[in-house]
Amino acid sequence: MKLYYSPGACSLSPHIALLEAGLPYDLVKVDLRAKKLENGDDFLQVNPKGQVPALALDTGEMVTEGPIIIQMIADRVADRKLAPARDSNERYKLLEWLNYITTELHKNLGPMFSPVLADDAKAFFKDRAMGKFKYVESQLAGREYLMGNQFTVADGYLFTMIMWATDRLGFDLSGLPNVTAYKARVAARPKVQEALKKEGLLKAA
Hints:
This is Glutathione S-transferase. Residues 87-205 form the GST C-terminal domain. Residues 1-81 form the GST N-terminal domain. Pfam families: GST_C_3, GST_N_2. The longest helix is centred in the middle third of the chain and has 21 residues, at 89-109. The chain has a five-stranded mixed β-sheet with strand order 3-2-1-4-5, covered by helices on one side. α1 (12-21) packs across α7 (190-198), α3 runs parallel beside α5 (153-168) and α5 (153-168) packs across α6. The protein starts with a strand and ends in a 7-residue tail after the last helix. It is built from seven helices and five strands; from the N terminus they run βαββββαααααα. The chain is of the alpha+beta class and 205 residues long.
């Protein structure tokens, strides 16, 4: 498999998932602004959406959209319990978390990276995102991870969003002790450390 990624982008989530799953893969770096690969090839020929992550399967098929990619990775190594069993109530809870992270956190944080977005608009998105993080804070009370004591692919995704907020967008989440402790706990996982190192992000953890 090949994971098309950009350092620190949301592709960090499936990168973590691949390492936690123990699946073999190659990393292909993408310049998202130029839509080019390191060898100069046009990334739009790989993924017409022009976004990462994109995962090329050994069959030649291409899978895009992070929440789908990480579930597929988890299902390939069911014994690792990176996702609850299909059709179980717990699996639907995982889907609920993935949907929340992608629509309520990812989609509010993403626009804040735009260099042309006005300050008042950034403040609007920041306020919205902070409200969503407060909900996460309440749900992490008494839990090691989102689904309880078991790390799942949803945790790699949430960790990526927390890194965006604190390390790249300057959010102060110190008033959310559960979220702060959670970030440190996930960052300390060996496979997460490995993903951060491979993407040149270790100092940001």
